[in-house]
Each structure stands twice: as C-alpha cells, then as structure tokens.
Amino acid sequence: MLRKKALKRIYLTTLVLFIMLITFTFDYLQEDSKDTLQEVEFVSNLNTSHIYLLNEDNFLVCVDILLDKSDTVNMAYEIINNLFVSNKKYSNLKGIIPSNTKINSIDFRDNTITIDFSNDLLKVNKDLEEKVVESIVYSLLELEGVLNVVIKIDGANLTYLEKSEKNLPILLNESLGINKTYDITSLKDTKKVVLYYVFTSYDKDYYVPVTKYLNSSQDKVKIIIDSLKGNYFSSTTLSSYLNQKTDIKDYYLDEDILTITFNSLNQENLESVTYTLASSIFDSMDVNKVIFEVDSNIVAVKLRN
How confident is the model over 103-136, as pLDDT tens digits? Predict the structure, then answer.
C-alpha cells in the first residue's frame, strides 16, 4: 500500500514537472520567436544608401550608410545630418556642412527635393564652397525617385556662389559634376567623363567619382580606359586598380549594351576593376549593361543600378 502511494506520488510529481517543462519551453520559444521577428522587422526597415564625405585631399568620397526606410523627407533629413563636419565616424573622412547651419525645411514633390538652409551653409573657404553643394546634391540623388535637388538659403534659391563666382541652375542634378577637374585648352573637341577612382583608408576601399572635362578627339570608352590606367592622380591618395599594361583589343555598342574585350585584366582585383570601369561608363554614356571579355571569354557583366 505504501509502495503504491509512493509510486502514485512520484507519478504525479513527474507529471507536474513535465507539464511545467512543456509550458516553459513553449513560452521560451514564443519569446524567442518574437525576438527573431522583431530582428527581421528591424532589418527590413533599413535601407542602404550613400553619402559623400571629404577626405584629406578635398575629394568627396562615397560612403555606405544605413537609413530607416521611411518616407523620402525623413531619409533626406538623416542624410543631411550625416554631412555636418561633426560627423567623424569614418577614419580620414569628415562631413562638410558647417556645424552652425540649420535645416529650415525639406520638401519632396515631382521627383525634386527642395531643402532650405540657414545662411551658415556657405561659411566655408573658397575651395570648399562648391564641394558643399556637390556633397548635398549627390548624397540626396542616391535616394530612390530623386532626380533633382533645389537648395535654398533662408527661402531664396541658391543660384550663385560668391566666393568662387560661379552660377548654379535652380534644378541641381548629376549635370552639376562632382570632384571636378579641367584639362581644357580650347573649345574644340570638349568632352565630359566621370571616372571612378579608389581611396584607401585603414585597409578599406572607398570609391571616388571624378568629373573630368578635357579636349580629346577620342571616344569616351577610350578616354575612360586611358585615364584610369594613367598616372593622372599619382600625386594624391586616389588610385586605380586598372593595370597600365591593360589595353582594349576591341569594343562595340549594341543599343544600350557595351562589350569590351581586353588583352588582360587584374584577376586579384577583378571586382574593383570592373566596378570602377562600369560605373565610369554608366555615368558618362547612355549604357545600361557592360560585358567584360578577356580574349573573347566573358569574365564579368555589370548592370546599371
């Protein structure tokens, strides 16, 4: 009798413990599931974009950032707040907008962002005046659906830079140019190309678009290749992974697809080489796809974003 009672007591105790274990495990999995769902939801609310910060040679460098995927106006605010000189999150890079500058308002309509600043915006030296505008415009153009930027100073359209004595159109876009350089001696055969170089800081590579104006009778493909494999920026911290011995064997354009055949390409840095070349071509020509070949074998294909 006592044995039966003891067994019954053990059975009931075991059953209670089992039920408690099941309940605890279910609650734990529910909480873990909630945490996982919250984490997935948090990640899905983030959006990758780019901003342009200043390096030690006064070149604007493309930097990846994460934005809360909200409306365009809020993302624009977040981008601009990352362009202030107080942003020193990145080694050897800094923001360019003076700290005292205030954002009066931001509006987005008809693919155009209109942003009104206080008059502290351009309280910089002459060499940086145009860079401030370039940094703002190119950073905001990274947002989906933004084709133009209008900059106002206390309600008035910014159409003239007093220190550098340059006129600006009201609608600012990629025609403005960024990190501009000039190699022009006459008005004959003038061309504009965008070249993507590499800036390395603490073993991390950043891409740097350079808008180059020059006199040349060559077509833009040849200008881009020759410029990126040359020593044009040998006196700065910018570099190119394109080997000086690299030559074009052939290239042809079929509608919006450009195929380029090289004698060789740097295999160790193939991604950087093809990225900088394709980005330069996309920003300089009406091309949506670039096919890279070495001796008629396809080694990479790049699509316009």
Answer: 999 999 999 999 999 999 999 999 999 999 999 9
What is the overall mean pLDDT for the chain?
85
Yes or no: say if 197 and 237 are a contact pair by the CB < 8 Å rule: no
**Using CA atoms in the order 152, 158, 162, 168, what is the torsion angle rounded to 10 degrees?**
150
Tokens of 274: 């093809």
Residue type, 105: S
Q: What is the DSSP string of 139-186?
A: HHTTSTT--EEEEEETTEE--EETTTTEE--SSBSGGG-SS-EEE-SS
CA distance linking residue 133 with residue 168, whole number of Å: 10
Strand partners, 76: none
Q: Is residue 167 a contact partner of residue 131, using CB atoms and an 8 Å limit?
A: no
- Say how far apart CA 191 and CA 194 lie, in whole Å: 10
pTM: 0.82
CA 117/CA 168 separation, integer angstroms:
16
**Distance of CA 241 to CAs 2, 22, 55, 230, 281, Å?**
87, 60, 19, 11, 16
- List pLDDT tens digits, range 6-52: 434 444 445 444 555 455 444 544 555 444 444 444 445 678 899 99
Give the residue carrying structure tokens 């911290």: 237
Q: How far is it, in rounded angstroms, from Cα 83 to Cα 52?
A: 8
Q: Classify 145 in phi/psi space as left (phi over 0), alpha (psi -120 to 50) or beta.
A: left
Exposure string over 174-201, b if 16+ CB within 10 A, otherwise e: eebbbbeeeeeeeeeeebebbbbbbbee
